[in-house]
Design goal:
It is a single chain. This protein is mainly alpha-helical. 75% of the residues lie in helices and 0% in strands. It has one domain. It contains six helices and no strands. Helix 2 runs antiparallel to helix 3, helix 2 packs parallel to helix 4 and helix 3 runs antiparallel to helix 4.
Amino acid sequence: MQLVRDATVGGVVHVDAAEAAGRMGQVEKAVAILLALARDAMLEDVVSVEAAEALKRLGQVEALLALVRDATVTEWRHVRAAEALNRLEQDK
């Protein structure tokens, strides 16, 4: 989790580290970090998309729904989260 907290690396690296932590059993921490990255308006949109995709790969339906419903994120990010949620449902 050290890499997730490292301010010198880019947002996508944070996403990758959080997703890896989720795959290693730290799912709650990973989801919290990925949601924070997806919602952070100061980060590039690509980070939000990667965070939503990571949530999809981790099978986090509730987290993706929360992101889709979040009034603080842009419409573009809502759409990307909804697309990830839709792909997750199709993969079942």
